[in-house]
Amino acid sequence: MIRIGLTGWNGHRGMEGLQAYSARFPIVEVDSSFYAVQPVRNYEKWVRSTPDDFGFVIKAYQGMTGHQRGDVPFASKREMFAAFLNSIAPVREAGKCKMVLFQYPPWFDCTRPHVDVLRYTKEKMGDLPLALEFRHQSWFQPEMQERTLAFMEQEGWIHSIVDEPQVNPGSVPIVLHPTDAKLTLIRFHGRNREAWLEPSGENWREKRYLYRYSEEELARWAERIRELQTGTAEICVIFNNNSGGDAAANALQLAELLGVEYKGEPPGQISFFDL
Length: 275
Prior knowledge:
275 residues; 18% strand; 8-stranded parallel β-barrel; TIM Barrel; two-stranded antiparallel sheet
């Protein structure tokens, strides 16, 4: 099975609100959870607004991944993880939590202390499905790649495979290796190399994800996804190139290339999303 969706549901051309979004896409990445631990009521609302088989990829709070600059509004790491887990409980109870995504920053390199951080995170998150995305190339250097993937398999991490500009050392290559037999995540960040090299200006984050994938680029990815299906039962694909409204168009384009069709139903009814 392949599920294709976007990062967030607001601000995409032709779509207003989660209910309208879920009629077109079967999965979404919640990124507001990265900036703040969301109130439980938000997740309760999102669960009610989506079909029964809809899925959420919830991005881990920035304090849990080391992105937080300044004071973290929690007395301890234990309290922070507990607050996050409590906030997402409605999604989990509804069976709509596909995975929680832990995307680590570019300075999170391949060292023993950082391996310990990953083990601590797995312990605190319990049996929730967790996806792991690196932003430092040291994890996938030739001498470390096999060890990194073996570690992810042993520790139970879902591999978040990324398409992003190759900027040393703050990005990782495309590594087509599922580490979980049930789930694999693919995230498209665009290929705006210039904006990744020199983030500057007030709207640098928007410029970073300003990119539209070509038909040829997506056709190559359709081949890769078919190959990945031999090693994992379900693939979730998220388009994060949303600065210029390109994500939705590219997502629908890839779905067509893969022969994937989705017709969402109102919440409470059954919908199907099959390859």
